[in-house]
Specification:
Elements (H helix, E strand, L loop, with lengths): L5 E3 L2 E3 L18 H16 L3 H19 L6 H24 L4 H27 L5 H29 L10 H12 L12 H44 L7
Antiparallel strand pairs: 1-2
Length: 249
């Protein structure tokens, strides 16, 4: 008898390919290092206030984007051009952070940070959805993308402050405060200790809350559920393979 292909989480898996039943051991992109860099950059801004840290953050975000684009399907020439543009833009943004930390120049640097992180989120989500199987690296990838969404909105809030001179009704306008406000909004914690003073700031905060909940409820939840389901299916498949006479014609 010829074995029929198995349908697993919307994917067709041919018999005789047991390696596909090993969640977490796929050959796709590896996002563990990317998630680690994101955590380090967040902690740097959370526990320090030095101007130099904001400059280092820009360069670390460049590393994040290059990791996200590493497995992109680009021609060699195209990949080199993208890398050079990102490098030059990030160096310029880092210099703006140094010479005009609280002015419009730093606002431009914050918008650049938001732009490159948005590019990274796009490619990460595209790569994860394009993989043939759900692995633990897929989970690392979407968690990294979720964390980057919070950093994107934090950079937008910071740019708004640097252009206008005010963002919160009260409280210190520091980089770590914007990140705290962004992630509290993204996760809809709603502490209420910081509030945007302008209509534009409130509108973007509402947009962030909607994006955060949709991302969690659709992409992250579905991938986690698919990873668990495929893990149980792999265990059942292994027991069937080990049964006496299994797989014989």
């Amino acid at each position: 008898m010829r074995r029929k292909p198995l349908r697993l989480a919307g994917m067709t898996i041919q018999a005789g390919q047991p390696r596909l039943f090993r969640p977490g051991r796929g050959s796709g992109p590896r996002y563990g290092s990317l998630l680690l860099i994101l955590i380090v950059t967040y902690l740097l801004s959370a526990f320090t206030v030095a101007v130099l840290v904001s400059t280092v953050q820009v360069l670390l975000f460049l590393a994040v984007v290059l990791i996200a684009l590493r497995t992109g399907r680009f021609r060699r020439r195209t990949g080199e051009i993208i890398a050079v543009v990102l490098l030059l833009g990030s160096v310029a943004a880092a210099l703006l952070e140094l010479v005009d930390h609280d002015g419009p120049g730093a606002g431009v640097a914050s918008l650049w940070t938001a732009l490159i992180l948005l590019l990274a989120v796009f490619y990460i989500v595209r790569q994860v959805l394009g993989q043939a199987e759900i692995t633990e690296q897929s989970i690392y990838g979407v968690v990294s993308a979720y964390m980057m969404i919070g950093l994107i909105f934090a950079a937008v809030y910071l740019a708004m402050y640097r252009f206008s001179g005010q963002f919160f009704v009260h409280g210190p306008d520091e980089t770590k405060t914007f990140q705290y406000f962004s992630f509290a909004t993204l996760t809809t914690l709603g502490y209420g200790d910081f509030t945007a003073v302008t209509d534009a700031g409130r509108a973007i905060a509402v947009l962030e809350a909607i994006v955060g909940q949709m991302f969690l409820a659709t992409l992250v939840a579905r991938l986690v559920a698919g990873f668990r389901w495929s893990d149980r299916a792999a265990a059942r498949h292994g027991r069937v393979q080990a049964a006496p006479g299994a797989g014989r014609d």
